[in-house]
Design a protein that fits this description.
Number of helices: 8
Strand order of the largest sheet: 3-6-5-4
Distance between the termini: 47 Å
Helix content: 25-40%
Shape: globular
Radius of gyration: 18 Å
C-alpha cells in the first residue's frame, strides 16, 4: 500500500480517503437534484417540492427497501434547503451522538441561524425511548429531521415523532 506525506510525517493510505473516485459506485453516481432522480414520482410531487420551497416542514420519514433512494432524497433536500446536514446511522450512533447534534442545532437556531437537518439512517433501530430525544427539538423547530427505514414506520417509529413528520 502506498504511503502519503502529511505535514512531514509518513501516513499510510487507507480505504477511507476522501477522494470521491475511491467511494462506492453508488456514492459516485448519487443524483444531486430532483431532476436527476429517476422514479419515485409518488414522492417527488409538486406538493412535496412546494413544501420544500416554502420551508414548511419539520420532518420526513422515508420508508422503502434498500437501494430505493432514501439517502439520496435526503441529500438532495439538504442541497435545496441549504441547511447544515448531519448524517447518523442508528446502527453506530446512540442517544449521546444524537443529543450532540440536537444541541448544536438548537444553539444555531437560537442565534438566528437555520436549524440543521439531522438524517438518521436505519432509524427503526432506535427504540422508541431513544427516539423520544428528538421530540422537544422538533416541537420548537430547532431541528429538521429525516429518518430512513426499511421497516414499517407505523410499528417502528414513535407515534409522536411520526405525527410531526411526513
Amino acid at each position: 500500500m502506498p504511503f502519503l506525506r502529511y505535514k512531514g510525517q509518513m501516513e499510510q493510505e487507507t480505504l477511507f480517503q476522501s477522494d470521491r473516485s475511491q467511494s462506492p459506485l453508488a456514492e459516485q453516481r448519487r443524483p444531486e437534484s430532483f431532476d436527476a432522480i429517476i422514479g419515485q414520482e409518488h414522492v417527488l410531487t409538486s406538493r412535496f417540492k412546494k413544501i420544500l420551497e416554502t420551508d414548511r416542514w419539520t420532518g420526513f420519514i422515508f420508508w422503502g427497501p434498500p437501494g430505493t433512494g432514501k439517502t439520496t432524497l435526503a441529500t438532495v433536500i439538504a442541497k435545496i434547503t441549504r441547511r447544515p446536514f448531519i448524517t447518523l446511522s442508528a446502527v453506530t450512533s446512540g442517544v449521546k451522538d444524537i443529543r450532540e447534534v440536537l444541541d448544536r442545532s438548537r444553539s444555531a437556531f437560537r442565534m438566528g441561524q437555520p436549524s440543521h437537518i439531522l438524517f438518521i439512517d436505519e432509524v427503526h433501530r432506535l427504540n422508541k425511548a431513544q427516539q423520544d430525544v428528538l421530540l422537544p427539538f422538533l416541537e420548537e423547530g430547532s431541528i429538521r429531521f429525516i429518518g430512513a427505514t426499511t421497516e414499517n414506520p407505523s410499528f417502528e417509529i414513535n407515534n409522536a415523532i411520526a405525527s410531526r413528520s411526513m
